[in-house]
Amino acid sequence: MAAENGSPFRTERVPGDVGEAELAVGVSGPQTGSASADPVVALHGITAHHRAFNAPARRISGDRAMIAPDLRGRGDSQKPEVGYGLDAHAEDVVRILDHFGLESAALAGHSMGAFVAIQTALSYPDRVRSLVLLDGGWPRPQTPPEEMTEEQLREAEATREGLARAFRRLEMTFESPEDYLEFWFPGQGLTPDDLPPDVADYFLYDLGEVEGGYSPKCSPAAASQDSEWLSGRSPTADELRGVGCPVALAAAGAGFFPESEPLISDEILRTMAGALDLRSQTRLPQTNHYSMLYEPHVGEFSGLLASDDWAR
Questions:
Q1: Helices in the chain by DSSP H: which ranges?
Q2: What is the pLDDT of residue 158?
Q3: β-strands 40-43, 207-210: how paired?
Q4: What single DSSP character describes residue 31?
Q5: In the list 128, 156, 207, 288, which could disulfide-bond 254, CB 3.0-4.6 Å?
Q6: DSSP states of 233-284 as a string?
Q7: How many C-beta atoms lie closer than 10 Å to residue 274's C-beta?
């Protein structure tokens, strides 16, 4: 299928058996199935979809295919009322590998997608050759709030604040795409034509037509259940030691908002380096959690996606 609406991705469907969600999957670059393609599987964040990887896919399109699903409950994938959590997403990743005839693959994940990638490596170690974590995958804190340092409290509050804004829009109806851009870029009067094409495509794909206008495609139930799962059951630092494959990490310089505290602090990065086989680590000082996925910043880590040379 041809790439759509200027996106580098063409879309395929991964069918689901009883109890499984049918998944929409974006595929870019060389055709999968050939030895030269050796695709990287890219997993998006908690309320996002596969078009978050427009710019990275375009960057590596001459070297490597990318397979990027809409995780269950997001984008054009099916949206069951229940059945979320990292275990369910990891099972879906394995279904995707099976669908494309891949015995194993390199996985990349941004934000929650990094946690999904880690869970897949823990649950199905023979199916994962390497991990590229993009501002995600940090260990679940085990320190109770009353014992946290000021830095840890700031980090927790920054995460809550950023997620609350992203979640709030899921219950909203917007009159037009321009109205939706006003939510994200207040007071700027932007239209899709004002944005870089990859960014405009992301926001347009994010919306589905509903009565009265447009609403984000991400299921509120999916985001809520996954958030609860992450808060209480994502891997601790000790559990991260069970990841047996090489890992690369690219961390944004700021959190959800410009000039906010990064989600992966230097202290957290040191903890991850002690728990994982971390072969490459990069801090992108001019980026936040979202902007790191777009040009020109994506060039600072796209080499990690284009080949596995860093892992050898």
A1: 54-60, 86-99, 112-123, 150-168, 177-184, 197-206, 220-233, 237-240, 266-275, 302-306
A2: 75
A3: unpaired
A4: P
A5: 288
A6: HS--HHHHTT--S-EEEEEESSSSSTTSPPSS-HHHHHHHHHHS-EEEEEEE
A7: 12
The number of angstroms, rounded, from the C-alpha of 110 to the middle of its chain's C-alpha atoms is 3
- Of 174, 188, 46, 156, the closest CA to residue 112 belongs to 46
Dihedral, CA of residue 289, residue 291, residue 294 and residue 300, to nearest 10: -70
Domains of the chain, start order: 10-146+218-311 (3.40.50.1820)
If we measure between CA atoms, which residue out of 44, 63, 62, 65 comes closest to residue 53?
A: 44
- Name the pTM for this structure: 0.95
- pLDDT of 140 reads 93
Question: What pLDDT, on the 0 to 100 scale, is given for residue 19?
Answer: 77
Q: Do residues 253 and 283 touch, judged by C-beta distance below 8 A?
A: yes
pLDDT at residue 32, rounded to an integer = 53
Among residues 289, 227, 293, 215, the alpha carbon closest in space to that of 252 is found at 289
Tokens of 81: 């009322």
